[in-house]
TrEMBL record:
The keyword Metal-binding applies. The keyword Mitochondrion does not apply. Keywords: Hydrolase, Metal-binding, Zinc. Its cofactor is Zn(2+). This is Acetoin utilization deacetylase AcuC-like enzyme. Belongs to the histone deacetylase family. Residues 28-346 form the Histone deacetylase domain. InterPro entries: HDACs, His_deacetylse_dom, His_deacetylse_dom_sf, Ureohydrolase_dom_sf.
Length: 353
């Protein structure tokens, strides 16, 4: 399979995130992508390329998933942050005030002139620093997703969007969880727009893919599934429960499979079979896999216990659908193992595809 990597990813390099009342070094670092790329050079799965998509086409694809006012916000965010105080040029932007959703009654329909207020309006946590290069890096990541979708539309069995920063927590009009543009959703919509009737998105990151779920929640043409740490105890806490089944036309087209912190591979693997049965029943034309490697036993912020060798079996199981399959790169914070684990999964997929 061909890999598209983001040549602009190092432009996004947050310094610190807020964690329980203090600032700690960011977990989502550029070295993560570099380790995956280095492992792909050691164990090639196919060509490595940077995406070549025109800016116009890219922005059109991004706008199929994200709202215009959110994209306007992202495009000018850094300049507005610095305009608030020239000294801000030396600091990452982090929100500190949020308009809670209904039934709390704060309004999200009136766009505040104050940038700090808008920073909160378009985000849901204080762990995702926005930097001078975030918008450019995020567009580069989305371009990988779009290029990978085009590979599938051209008839390839699989493609890998090595798309940092990650995307699965980003919604139509918000960032959070280290994510700014939802790369998997952008790829999914591009597959739909390219003529594929039904697309399944199976999120295997440790954290619930809240952004992807909400984007497609009322649609029957995209089945969203996520296997993740139970939100009762795990980030993102406020979504990802088993009773979220979709709404309206999308009723029955979302499947959450939360598992308790501490879950071992045998249970995780059996749960993957439940997800794959649902993908099969949906009669998908393509599969998108937001691929997080933070299910690894050594992950510093997660709670499952998968071992490096287990990822071969994950890839093999994903290949069993027989569907054209697109992978995006999501979490995985045991940085020196993330390359091995990612390529193990992809190699497991490719050798049995
Ligand atoms: C992004 B992705 C935990 C802090 C949690 C946010 C985690 C975002 C994960 N101690 N901060 O899904 O890997
Ligand atoms: Zn994660």
């Amino acid at each position: 399979m061909k890999t598209f990597h983001n040549p602009h990813h190092t432009l996004h390099q947050g310094r610190e995130e807020m964690f329980r009342g203090r600032m700690v070094p960011c977990h989502e670092v550029p070295a993560r992508l570099d380790f995956v790329l280095a492992e792909l050079q050691r164990r090639p799965l196919g060509a490595l390329a940077t995406p070549s998509v025109s800016e116009t086409e890219l922005l059109a694809s991004i706008a199929r998933v994200h709202s215009a006012r959110y994209l306007d916000f992202l495009a000018s965010a850094w300049d507005e942050w610095v305009a608030m105080d020239p000294a801000n040029a030396q600091r990452d932007a982090l929100p500190s005030v949020w308009p809670l959703g209904n039934p709390h009654g704060f309004r999200a329909d009136v766009l505040p002139a104050n940038f700090a207020a808008r920073l909160g309006l378009f985000s849901f946590d204080s762990g995702s620093p926005l930097t001078a290069g975030t918008w450019a890096a995020a567009r580069g990541g989305a371009a990988c997703a779009l290029a990978a979708a085009r590979e599938l539309l051209a008839g390839q069995r699989s493609a890998f969007a090595l798309s940092r920063p990650p995307g699965h927590h980003a919604g139509t009009d918000f960032f959070g969880g280290y994510c700014f543009l939802n790369n998997a959703a952008i790829a999914t919509q591009a597959l739909r727009d390219g003529g594929l009737g039904r697309v399944a998105v199976l999120d295997v990151d440790y954290h619930h893919g809240n952004g992807t779920q909400t984007i497609f929640y009322e649609r029957a043409d995209v089945l969203t599934l996520s296997i993740h740490g139970d939100p009762t105890t795990e980030y993102p806490f406020f979504l990802g429960h088993a009773d979220e089944r979709g709404a309206g036309a999308g009723e029955g087209f979302n499947l959450n499979l939360p598992l308790p912190r501490g879950t071992h591979f045998a249970t995780w693997r059996a749960t993957l079979d439940r997800a794959l049965d649902a993908v099969d029943a949906f009669k998908a034309n393509a599969l998108v896999v937001p691929m997080g490697l933070d299910t690894f036993e050594g992950d510093p912020i997660s709670g499952f216990t998968l071992k490096s060798d287990d990822y071969f079996a994950v890839g093999e199981a994903l290949a069993s659908t027989g569907l054209p399959t697109l992978f995006t790169f999501e979490g995985g914070y045991a940085v020196d193992a993330v390359g091995t684990n990612a390529v193990n999964l992809l190699e497991g997929f490719q050798r049995s595809a």
